[in-house]
Amino acid sequence: MYFNRLSTKFKLKNIGKRALATLFVSGVAVSVIFQNCGKAGFDTTSTGLDSLSEESSRLSSGAPFAFDAAIDQISYLSCASSKLGGNSFTFRFGAYSITRPQSPNTPDKIMSGLAVKRTFFDYARANLQPTYDPKNPKGNEVTYDQMKKFLSTSAGNSGQQLQFSMRKINDLKQIYTIVGSVSSTDAVPVLGDLSDDHWLEPIASKAYADSTGSDFVNYFPLAIDASARKIEGELDFNKAGTDAQIQTLAETYRDEFASNAQLVLGFSKTSDLTNLTTPDATSARKAFGTGYRPMFKQGVTPFTNVLNGKDYEIGESVVSTYIQYPENVMTSISEVSLESGKSTGRTWTCDVKRRYTIARSQDSALCPPDGYNKSSVSDKINQKAAYDSFDKLLKDANYRYELELVRRHFPAKDWDVSIDRRCLVPKIKNFSCYADEILATAQGGTSYGLVPVEYDQTKSCYSFTKGATDYGGVAPTPYCAEIASICVRN
Q1: At 376, phi and psi to the nearest 5?
Q2: Host domain of residue 217
Q3: What angle do CA 358, 364, 370 make, to 5 degrees?
Q4: Which pLDDT tens digit goes with each residue over 171-210?
Q5: Among 467, 474, 477, which Cα is nearest to 7's?
């Protein structure tokens, strides 16, 4: 596919000896929220492996890959306009979930994050010679410090970093970018060098102590940089050029997921973001890590049901959207092992109740935010009523859970939210999900002087990705609404 200034170019680009899949629009900048944190290395414990013998070198090169990772939430924001102001994202991801036990005496089970595989410690115990440790009363077991040192220095595990990217299904060396080369905005580094104690100590100590299998860790308090303490980040493909260009690019990316592309949580050397660590260097389809394959379709939002008097909470819904509505809702995610190419068995839910309509800031009256607003009440009686109402809302466990899900990727500093109406209003300065074209140039003006947004998906609306002929020669005036879709792992 080739386009010029008004569209998108898809090509294979050689950088050195690396083939990269490139979706390109001139002048696009991509934002991320994490940096590549260098190895700090504050573990100086001697384990007897500081000077590797020929035998220990053999053991090091034969050690299995040690790390496993999983995320449990992916959010997609369909906003694609020239008014995003560098504050938008396409995908946000993270590892958050904790399963609460039935018994109060049983610890919580963390179901996503980073872990050391049990197979690595089994290999170490079977092959390393015990080193005397006065802290080890048994004296004949491979110690924790010995195994951790072995992990951090073994050939296949030293210098590994977790990363998130969008790659070709059939060739994991091909990364989707919107500039001519791969950077940390296309393959997003997460945490830091995993052989560094800032990240290794929490996962290694948990795996060593867990006799039934490694458990995940999703918070790393030892990391110096606060942004490197959590497994989360973002990809952004929706910024540059005219509104028509940007929406065409967004649709092109969505279409790629139909059969060609996947989101990848994988591992690579800290010095090489392009090439994933793999169990089989001869196969372009294999790597250590996980692929996430989202699908996009038209989808009715709860907000549309509210506007049509339907109670979405009990399953009431309008039948379908306007026929020319863009396919901008993330409706499902399938998860595959990059090592085997098969399903991981983990399933995801993209609940229709987690489709949040994005309202223009000028239309905020349609999406009143949840919470107590002091400026909205004028006397003590009304203030108490407002407090009591919001306090009752916060005592609802389902409400609190939905609010938590939304706030992970749509923080209060940037967005107002109505859980009841399932809508979001941006609070970011100079930010809009919609083109701010003046309606007066076409129809003699309207409220705010802007082309309106049609939030009711059953009614006709305009998308930049459709030509006038798609609408029978006369395109409707209002813009189609943009949507945030939130999917979570079961």
Answers
A1: -90, -5
A2: 9-297
A3: 85
A4: 999 998 876 667 778 889 999 999 999 999 999 888 887 7
A5: 467
